[in-house]
Design brief:
2 copies of one chain form a homodimer. In chain A, 49% of the residues lie in helices and 15% in strands. With 362 residues, chain A is of the alpha/beta class. In chain A, the strands form 2 sheets. In chain A, strands 1, 2, 3, 4, 5 and 11 form a 6-stranded mixed β-sheet that branches. In chain A, strands 8-7-9-6-10-12 form a 6-stranded mixed β-sheet.
């Protein structure tokens, strides 16, 4: 489409209006050219997979009628401004992590994960069969975007520590890089949550400015070099048992899609979700084997008694922090689903995994 | 397309050849009209979901260019002849359960599930990142069909029993309706595996002709009325920790799809997989609560010592039964993946689920 034709279609607004309005789909030889920015580098293992899987699928499935180009966080706008850029139509689409948007919508903390809450599969089931998708759509609509679940970190570890955690008292005075509800829990335990860019973490861990950090999991943690600056890798992952990623699409851009294109988008998100979970299982496991093998990382377990104490504190914090109606609604919905499914999960998948650890097989 | 035109296109073969060749896509106003038969009723909860989700998605995503009509098992051919009907092109597509085809390809028993093997998510990860998809494609190609993973029962229970299982010796003389590798294990434990249609099970359980049965899980088991004819529901589900469903497409029909249509099919299968897992988590949990609540089913645990004994026997049977090269290759691949991921799964999702059961939260 040449400039004169574009101006003619744009009418009074002219070219400037077209250029300013990222929400109007751009056409190149009759094709929709969309930009998707991730909050991570597009090459980041695991983290960046979903956006690439999604875009590749949509491009192929629509025979190129929709061409989605994937950008790393910072290529168009800074990573954490990705949501703003999608909201205001600078770009059509973003891919990130649900809790990243808790600054705008506090309930995102409850939508994104819940300490001691749901596992990945259970979280997926809550989105599909427990009312989660509807609650999510309501929250994302407040930001002017359409929501689709598009990935998951799987259960994250308790983090990397330079101090041992033997009792609940060991959290007292602990300086930990941690965000979201986890930061509030660490604070309530007597620790000091610290916010800093990941790039500053190695120096801060070495100088003792911080004592601990939680990041993603073995694959990405090794990539960030956390094993070089921390003595201990701790489990169990009470903090983020599930870490969902979100695709978010500018509402006006979403409105330009045909019903069949919307279906293709939803399926692309399902592909991204499945690919991400599978990749994290396979690659985190390989990274973990490397950690305990050649890298000789000291892997430690937070004693059960301390975990019990953390849970008591965590629940009080989580309930108290759900101050607005949306946070209360999401928390109530997740906890209802959790109560309903826990008895069954305990005798099915959990107990299978328990006995699998006991037996000699193969 | 009228008869004369069809004859002309068919050339020497004539109409009879077209009618005999289900592999040639039928056209109605330029559309591909495909038939998909499930091995189950299309309305069967959980079991029938995947085929419907898939067909609805493909029909919408292709704007009706491909119209897949779903049939219940028996509507076109008997349920267990679904694979034959797809192989020989009577219908384009089927939806069933991987181990159902072990009669044709023994390695399907190893592809479909493994006692003490992988959980659902781990199994999905093996298909995507452990070489499973490639192995599956090789096996299904021998039947002239294309394979896509399309659902999962999630961890199945140990079954419904009229005799208590307190020690390994209680399997001696046990008459159990069970198939596949499980049947071989029950036999090796001194029991008698029995094959009979599900419809005959209630009468057989009441008369004592059989003592036990394994079927799917709370949702479908209650639907089949097993709680009315069995005293005990047993866990843990050592037998089928994961139960994958398969989509299979006649190779010639698959060849008529464009690259974008193939992508749409793969995404439809991912949607079906995700929907099925989520539905089974939500609805099995609800059915389980009903079982232990109003239905007052006696839920029993096979003692760990007995499970250890079962595992010893199971491994010997599983290894001995892998007689052909394909079975050996699939078993080796699954066991390699299992060894690689188990250390990590133990400290991540498993241990999160373990401590979640210990703490008071909410």
């Amino acid at each position: 489409m040449d400039r004169r034709k574009a101006l003619k279609i744009a009418g009074g607004g002219g070219l400037a209006a077209i250029l300013a309005s990222g929400t109007a789909p751009a056409y190149s030889q009759g094709k929709k050219e969309w930009r998707l920015q991730q909050t991570w580098a597009k090459t980041a293992p695991g983290l960046g997979t979903g956006g690439n899987v999604f875009a590749e699928f949509v491009n192929k499935a629509t025979n190129g009628a929709i061409n989605i180009r994937v950008y790393s966080g910072g290529e168009i706008v800074p990573p954490f401004q990705t949501m703003d850029a999608v909201s205001n139509g600078t770009i059509q689409m973003g891919f990130g992590y649900v809790t990243y948007w808790a600054g705008q919508i506090p309930a995102m903390n409850y939508l994104g994960t819940l300490p001691f809450g749901l596992t990945v599969q259970e979280h997926n089931a809550w989105f599909m069969y427990g009312g989660g998708q509807q609650l999510a759509e309501k929250l994302y609509a407040k930001l002017g975007v359409q929501f689709m679940l598009g990935g998951n970190t799987i259960t994250q570890p308790a983090g990397w520590y330079n101090k041992e955690i033997k009792t609940l008292a060991d959290y007292k005075g602990l300086k930990m890089r941690i965000g979201g509800l986890g930061a509030k829990v660490v604070q309530a335990l007597g620790g000091t949550p610290v916010s800093m860019p990941l790039g500053e973490v190695p120096q801060a861990m070495q100088s003792g400015a911080i004592d601990a950090i939680e990041f993603v999991g073995p694959l990405n943690d090794l990539g960030a070099g956390l094993h070089k600056v921390a003595k201990y890798y701790y489990w169990p992952g009470w903090l983020e048992p599930s870490g969902p990623y979100d695709f978010f699409i500018n509402e006006k851009a979403w409105g330009t899609l045909s019903p069949s294109e919307k279906e293709i988008f939803r399926a692309g998100a399902a592909l991204a979700l499945q690919a991400t979970i599978s990749e994290f299982i396979a690659k985190n496991a390989a990274a973990y084997n490397q950690m305990v093998g050649e890298l000789k990382v000291q892997v430690r377990q937070i004693p059960d008694e301390a975990v019990r104490g953390i849970a008591d504190v965590a629940w009080k914090v989580i309930e108290a922090e759900a101050k607005d109606a949306d946070s209360k609604a999401v928390l109530a919905s997740v906890m209802k689903f959790r109560r309903e499914i826990l008895p069954y999960m305990r005798v099915s998948e959990f107990d299978f995994m328990r006995v699998r650890n006991l037996v000699k097989f193969g």
